[in-house]
Amino acid sequence: MNKEINTKIVTFIFLLVVVALLFFLNKIGHLNQVKNYTAYFASPIGKTFQLSSNRINDFFWTLKSIDKLKEENLKLREENLKMGYEILELKEIQIENEILRKQIKFSKNSCSGGVCIEWKMANIIGRDPSNFGKHIFIDLGRNNGIQNGQPAVASGGLLIGKIVEVFDNSSKIMLITDSKSSINSITQTSRANGVVKGSYATGVKLEMINQSEKLVAGDLIITSGLEDKIPKGLIMGKISDINESANKVFKSAEINMFVDINRVEKIFIAIKG
Question: Residues 255, 206: contact at Cβ < 8 Å?
């Protein structure tokens, strides 16, 4: 036991002497060469560790940059989508305003004989797939004052059909191109009375014109006002080809419409006051 303690004391004293000697040698400058050799051999190792550390830092910086770029790209995409939607919305508003301007221009004289017309704009929400070109559905109904027989008009006073079925918040419109459609009419210039009928769901024809009446190509065909809920003066088209024969009681004419019904999105329902 005493031998082990003596060994530890001797070792401690030896290390203390070595440290003191090294301190003294460093003080007088005899260890500078040793330090130079140590720094020379340690430098490549330090450089290697520094290079590895830099590469690791660069790797994590790159990952962080990628995440940031992804986040910025997602934000830009969201902003682009928002801007695209806003531009689309503005375009739709412009289209709707143009439709309203045309109708307001047509509707300036909507009062006649003490009876005034109220125009309610509706959106087309559906078309009958089994009877293409015959019926459409709108988002106005009984709760909006819609009734059977009221006319459906495109902007500018162009008649496209009339209400045939009414629900609480929607209605069904029979288009004037339906073969079952029949609207009392009058020619604007010659004042010839007739009936506009649907022609195979693709167009309309002017029929039931007396042979004595005069028809003029290009003359406008308008509603006559003889039907209770359809006001006078709504435009249905203009005469293109006139069909007449001495062997027939009545003459007829082909009509060119001013509107493509399949492209109409918003219409007006005329409600008599």
Answer: yes
